[in-house]
UniProtKB/TrEMBL annotation:
It comes from Hymenobacter rigui. InterPro entries: TPR-like_helical_dom_sf. This is DUF3808 domain-containing protein. The lineage of its organism: Bacteria, Pseudomonadati, Bacteroidota, Cytophagia, Cytophagales.
Length: 498
């Protein structure tokens, strides 16, 4: 594989999913701890609030002029509209507007906010370029932004917003598996998990115009990689109650509830989310709702939500996953003709950058039939219905004809249900059985079992055993969720001093 091809592959896999959420969050909240020139005016504060609310017309009506902070608000609005809509037709105009704002910034008086705004706009441009397939340009824009943000921190060490963005980049580059990180080092983009967390925590705990977003980013990182779900959910719930008009905060709350297997609460938050023509359409909410309904066995309603997502959504990601979930809903709902139609549509379009889409495409290509009992149990576990899942699994019978895939999935699902029920001593033997049966089979059940055993032994204070299992999780050469599994195992080893 050529260097260029590896850069493209690594950049797509390593950064595609990251930019969508974190760059949407890169907007300041209200505080004026900096000198006036480096702070937002009251009007700009209101405009930023409307961007956070995802009400673009209301935000745009408040913006005029070409000072640095106005240009920053305008660019956050533009990148938010582009990345949420995933509309390729907006791409060229968005990038051109970014270039124009960068030219206007060159005429502004030098200062922390002026330099920070230039680096932020360049980072937004990198996000746009990567998401819409211009990975090499995106790599160069990322390099420029990273280096500019380093300069802002060096020249203005008390300007905390720059530490938010630099810390975010340092963390993600530092947490990438080595196979994806080497080319970023070649570009002069050294990462450090420790430095990234230090900078993020400063921006999250000390007053500054961007403190809210720093808190959100830090909470999401700690929830995903350091097993602190309750803190993240508490923060999202509190903020959403305080700002019920914010569609962004509603989305984050629904996402956290779904991730933490609280299906009823997530559906209630979905139904209570603000709607209306003044809000930016967020089709992905329908895709999340479809998953939640699938967990509950509401197959027809789940299909309607995913079909609405596909009708409204203009992007190329999550399409394969949506058709896979449509297939599951039709198949489990005893609609074989519809199931066959949706199955064939998995391969008809979309990209395989995100792990969900990769999983769907692999299901299509493997041509291995799913087991209805195991599939139903998996969905019940995802939805938080752990006891129901264990009851479902009791109906599974393995025979000589049972595939290795299914023989691995059954103990893995039992382990997950028992683990999430708070019965770690019962879960461990099933995780261990999965690993013993798997050998080098290219399925995610064994690496995920090793990762979860690592977490269990870490929580029990058995650091040496935990390290063994985290290293085991890293050792599997290929599976559907290798990128995220490796990142989590690597960060866990760092936490254990390795």
């Amino acid at each position: 594989m050529s260097l260029l091809a590896m850069v493209r592959r690594g950049f797509r896999r390593g950064w595609q999913g990251l930019f969508w959420l974190l760059l949407v969050l890169a907007k300041p909240c209200v505080s004026h701890s900096q000198p006036l020139r480096d702070a937002l005016s009251p009007t700009q504060v209101k405009a930023y609030a409307e961007v956070l609310n995802m009400r673009p017309a209301a935000a745009r009506a408040l913006l005029s002029g070409s000072d640095a902070s106005t240009l920053l608000v305008q660019d956050c609005l533009g990148i938010t509209e582009l990345l949420i809509s995933q509309d390729a037709g907006r791409y060229e105009a968005t990038v051109q507007a970014q270039d124009q704002r960068l030219k206007l910034l060159e005429k502004q008086p030098a200062g922390a906010l002026q330099a920070y705004t230039a680096a932020e706009i360049r980072l937004h441009q990198a996000a746009a370029q990567v998401v819409f397939g211009h990975e090499v340009q995106g790599a160069w824009s990322l390099r420029q932004s990273y280096q500019q943000m380093q300069q802002v921190v060096r020249r203005y060490p008390q300007f905390l917003p720059a530490r938010k963005t630099l810390g975010m980049l340092q963390f993600f580059i530092g947490s990438l598996p080595e196979s994806y990180r080497w080319f970023l080092k070649l570009l002069g983009l050294p990462g450090s998990v420790e430095a990234g967390l230090h900078n993020l925590r400063r921006a999250a705990t000390e007053p500054n115009d961007f403190q809210l977003e720093s808190r959100l980013i830090l909470a999401l990182l700690e929830e995903t990689y350091y097993k602190k779900p309750e803190a993240a959910l508490t923060l999202m719930s509190t903020l959403q109650r305080q700002q019920p008009q914010s569609l962004l905060l509603s989305y984050l709350l629904i996402s956290q509830l779904k991730k933490q297997h609280r299906t009823e609460a997530a559906l209630a938050a979905y139904r209570a989310a603000p709607t209306g023509p003044e809000y930016l359409p967020l089709p992905y909410l329908h895709h999340m709702a479809a998953d939640l309904l699938l967990y509950q066995g509401q197959y027809a309603t789940s299909q309607r939500e995913n079909l609405q997502f596909l009708q409204l959504y203009r992007g190329q990601h999550y399409r394969k996953d949506a058709y896979f979930k449509l297939y599951l809903a039709a198949w489990l709902g005893n609609s074989p003709a519809a199931a066959d139609k949706y199955r064939r549509q998995i391969g008809a379009g979309g990209r395989t950058v995100l792990e969900e889409d990769t999983y769907a495409q692999r299901f299509l290509e493997d041509k291995q039939p799913l087991n209805s009992i195991l599939t139903k149990a998996r969905l019940q576990i995802d939805g938080g219905y752990y006891r129901e899942a264990l009851s479902t699994l009791d109906g599974f019978q393995s025979t000589a004809a049972t595939s290795l895939h299914d023989r691995l999935e059954e103990p893995y699902r039992r382990a997950r249900a028992l683990h999430l029920l708070g019965r770690p001593d019962s879960a461990r033997p099933y995780y261990a059985r999965t690993i013993a049966l798997a050998g080098t089979a290219p399925y995610y059940f064994a690496p995920q079992s090793a990762l979860q055993l690592g977490y269990l032994y870490q929580a029990a204070g058995q650091a040496a055993t935990a390290r063994t299992y985290f290293r085991k999780a890293l050792s599997y050469p290929r599976h559907e969720y290798k990128n995220s599994t490796d990142t989590k195992a690597k960060l866990a080893l760092k936490e254990l001093g390795e």
